[in-house]
Design a protein that fits this description.
6 strands; 47% helix; DNA polymerase, domain 1; hydrolase; 234 residues
Length: 234
């Protein structure tokens, strides 16, 4: 891949595990409300609440937990007990205190690419929580820039690239979300590498696979990235 100056990396579910933590909490949340509603109703109502609150709360654990409390009150017609609310809040505390678990090969890939490329971390979510995870990850030193944003779309990427003086044609984004990490960058004329994660939040799913020959790539693990970048352009 020629003329590549900068590489952006998503964080959650690209560099470290995230959605599996949410899924384990979802399971415990369903169990807590099981004597009120079936799991499908709980999931459907919670997702609707999250989407309704997204503009106000943004992404991240804190906004998610506020939505779980609101949903619990709604689904129980206000009958949920203070102890059950305390249990839900406790789930959020566990999530915020969860250790950062890097995906396989992350440290090695970043160490390999950092000397030859300008590496950027571009992630969305709660500022304090993302800063906490980055600090605990042990990989912060590999990045020349950290961008924690409220949304990842074309205007956001445009602002980041213009501020750093990076032409889109010299930028590559790596991430697990087609919607947030891949499609906006391709639309700007940049390149992107999709690294699917085992679980994808419904809000981040995109059904259409991009058609951008020579600019869009898909790999199974992040460990394949250095070989992809070293391959001759086709």
């Amino acid at each position: 891949m020629q003329h590549l100056r900068a590489i952006g990396f998503d964080a959650d579910d690209t560099l470290w595990h995230n959605e599996t933590i949410f899924e384990r909490v979802h399971e415990r949340y369903r169990a807590l409300l099981a004597h009120y509603h079936d799991a499908a109703t709980v999931d459907r109502t919670l997702f609707a609440t999250e989407m309704r609150n997204l503009e106000l709360y943004g992404y991240g654990i804190k906004g998610f937990m506020l939505s779980t409390v609101e949903t619990a009150i709604e689904l129980t017609d206000g009958k949920i007990s203070a102890q059950e609310i305390r249990t839900i809040i406790g789930l959020g505390r566990e999530m915020l205190n969860h250790p950062v678990e890097l995906l396989e090969g992350v440290s090695e890939v970043l160490a390999t690419l950092a000397p030859t490329h300008e590496l950027l971390l571009i992630t969305k979510g709660d500022l304090r929580d993302q800063e906490r995870k980055l600090a605990k990850s042990g990989i912060a030193s590999h990045f020349r820039g950290i961008e924690i944003v409220s949304e990842k779309n074309e205007p956001t990427y445009t602002t980041i690239l213009q501020r750093r003086g990076i032409p889109p044609t010299e930028f590559l984004m790596v991430g697990n979300s087609l919607k947030s990490d891949i499609l906006p960058v391709l639309a700007l004329g940049g390149s992107a590498v999709h690294v699917p994660y085992a679980l994808t939040w419904a809000h981040e799913r995109a059904t259409a696979v991009p058609e951008a020959p020579g600019r869009f790539f898909q790999i199974s693990t992040l460990g394949e990235l250095p070989s992809l970048l070293a391959a001759p352009a086709r």
